[in-house]
Amino acid sequence: AFANGVEIVVACPGRLLDHMQAGDVRLDRIEVCVLDEADHMADQGFLPMVKRILDATPANGQRLLFSATLAGGVDTLISRYLTNPVSHAAGVEAPVLLEHRVIVVQEPERVEEIAKMAREGRVVVFTRTKHRAKQLAKKLDAIGVGAVELHGNLSQNARERNLAAFSDGTATALVATDIAARGIHVDDVPLVVHADPPVEHKAYTHRSGRTARAGAAGQVVTIATPDQVGEVRDLLRKAGVTATWEGIPATSAARQGAPRATSSGAPRSGSSGAPRSASSGPRRTGRPTPHGARPQRNT
To answer: How many other CB atoms are there within 10 angstroms of residue 20's CB atom?
Structure first.
């Protein structure tokens, strides 16, 4: 196709550089260069590649940059490659009907907890790895929940087939890695489940954005084991999210600084939901411990 000449090229940075190095394509006559998902490029470490590509385009050409934020090196691209840039910002407000929940479970209960929610309606489930997505989809399917996977190891035909199955209701659960967190829209998804809490808060935000779209209501549920409570608490704080906590063991969650939840999942009356300060400590009950004796801890 390059040999015959093309008007538009849509490419990933690495693949485009391969063609440039092989002499298949030259960018010295490019008139318009568009960089999409610039913040995601920065997060994934692609900025050096992006800079090499932009350096190969004419300095007097038009350059457009789309990004959710201007952090993480995106501002460097703006100052280096854009001349007298004009900014356009979309006024996007957080959906008022988006509810965030954290369910604390033991590891063996994680799959059944997800299956319970998937039986009630369509759900997009996120995992950290492609292997986890594949295995979780198989486990859900084995216990009667129609599930399909979506990750980078699938061919384009398989991705389209699985997305179609989820869209038409053949499958009620779409188990995906972060490949589905950006740029893929499926109508009427009432629930997003983080089967594995994401590593950083930006991923949490993008994953959660698959629900509560266009003014619709939605829920975001994070499944966490007791030893992940501190990690999830920090994740939500960085994302600026207030969530209700439920599940077991509530006492472990409280020790980690998460707000206690009633049996219905709502925070207890009078609690602001904020983590305890280190100076407040847990409430002590019962008799004072004699001097020199070791206190017993309730478990």
So the answer is: 16
Query: Quick one: which H or E segment has residue 13?
Result: helix 13-21
- 166-190: buried (b, 16+ CB within 10 Å) or exposed (e) per residue? beeeebbbbbbbbbbbeeeeeeebb
Q: Global pTM? A: 0.64
34: domain CATH number is 3.40.50.300
pLDDT for 79 equals 86
E-only strand ranges, 87-146: 98-104, 123-126
221 and 173 assigned to the same domain: yes
Neighbours of 12 (CB within 10 A): 11
Tens of pLDDT, residues 192-238: 999 999 988 888 988 888 887 777 788 999 999 999 999 999 999 99
Q: What is the mean pLDDT of residues 140-150?
A: 94
Distance between CA atoms of residues 135 and 34, nearest Å = 37
State the Cα–Cα distance between residues 249 and 268, nearest whole angstrom.
16
pLDDT per residue over 162-192, tens digit each?
999 999 999 999 999 987 666 567 778 899 9
**pLDDT surpassing 90 at residue 71:** no
Question: What domain range is 158 assigned to?
Answer: 98-255
Contact 246, 252 (CB under 8 A): no
HSE value, Cβ hemisphere, 13 Å, CA-based, for 135: 10
Beta strand segments in the chain, E: 32-35, 62-65, 98-104, 123-126, 147-150, 173-176, 191-194, 218-224, 244-247
Could you tell me if residue 226 is inside a domain?
yes
Single-letter residue type at 262: T
